[in-house]
Amino acid sequence: MKVLITGATGLIGQAIVSQCHNLNIAVHYLTTSQEKISQQENYKGFYWNPKNNEIDVACLEGVEAIINLAGATISKRWTASYKNVILNSRLNTLRLIKETLEKEKHEIKQVISASAIGIYPDSLTNYYDEGTKATSTSFLGEVVEKWEAMTDTFQELSVVVSKIRIGLVLDNEQGALPQIVKPVKYGFGAAFGSGNQWQSWIHIKDLAGIFVHVLKHKLEGVFNGVAPNPVTNTELTKTVAGVLNKPLFLPNIPKSLMKLILGDMHILLFESQRVSSKKIEDSGYQFEYVNIKPALASLLD
């Protein structure tokens, strides 16, 4: 089997590539950087530039499925212009792939796209599954709604369409966890706001595992990419401190302060989404990391 991955050189992409190779699945990948193009037997890079509608169509050769992870990071200050970058980087990449499939001969049977749990409304009490109709009115909620709508247009090509709504990804080198760990390591760790907001987390290995599971079994529809046991922000912070054997004595960090420092992006720390993993488990996926402490210990020890 051969799969085409966009965003293959990023945090999630690298983990998926590793699991694909373990299963003898060859990978083609698209990159905007000529320097990142490799030509190995099971890992071949191809250039694209979605801003200019450029794509090397040779990337489709022998490919049966596409995993789409492309999109600008949300971990940069959300100025008005950067909000456009966040949205358009997701829509334009999908649009270019779809237009390419419409024009070129291909063997694509499935498109799996990243999405985000930011589509669910902020709530301390609700428990969300994939059937939830309510959607967040926040900026991220609007981005995810448009992102998923663009992904759904691939159904016009008679391919299986799958969407993985990703939660808080735990990895020891990239993403949110190193930022959470840094102040705790130096004795400045503290929960944010009330600390009661839910964090639906997932270990990077399990997230990659879910993408590969959906690929292998040609699963269709929406799946939450979260671990079975969400935790509150307070519990997450305390568990990080416990694993690192560091004290927590500072008061919780006020929302107003983080809004001042981060601007609109502060909602990433304060929004609460408690999200169910039951659907992906019912499909046969078995999580390696079910609880937060062993997940953190595997990354921080």
Written description of the protein model:
It is a single chain. This protein is 37% helix and 18% strand. With 301 residues, the protein is an alpha/beta fold. The chain has one domain (2-170, 201-227, 273-289): NAD(P)-binding Rossmann-like Domain (Rossmann fold), CATH 3.40.50. The two termini are 36 Å apart.
Q: Topology, please?
A:
Blueprint lengths: L1 E5 L4 H12 L3 E6 L7 E2 L2 E7 L4 E2 L9 E4 L11 H24 L6 E7 L22 H14 L7 E7 L1 E3 L5 H10 L12 E2 L1 E3 H13 L4 E5 L5 E2 H12 L10 H8 L4 H4 L7 H5 L9 H9 L1
Parallel strand pairs: 1-2, 1-6, 2-4, 6-7, 7-8, 8-12, 9-11
Antiparallel strand pairs: 3-4, 4-5, 10-13
Helix pairs in contact: 1-5, 2-3, 4-6, 6-10
Key descriptive features of the protein:
NAD(P)-bd_dom_sf, alpha/beta, 10 helices, two-stranded parallel sheet, DUF1731, 13 strands, 9-stranded mixed sheet, 18% strand, TIGR01777 family protein, 301 residues, Rossmann fold
Q: Total strand count, please?
A: 13
How many H/I helices?
10
Helix-strand category: alpha/beta
Shape: globular
Protein name: TIGR01777 family protein
Family: Belongs to the NAD(P)-dependent epimerase/dehydratase family. SDR39U1 subfamily.
Pfam family, one: DUF1731
InterPro entries: DUF1731, Epimerase_deHydtase, NAD(P)-bd_dom_sf, SDR39U1
Q: TL;DR of this structure?
A:
With 301 residues, this protein is α/β, with parallel strands linked by helices.
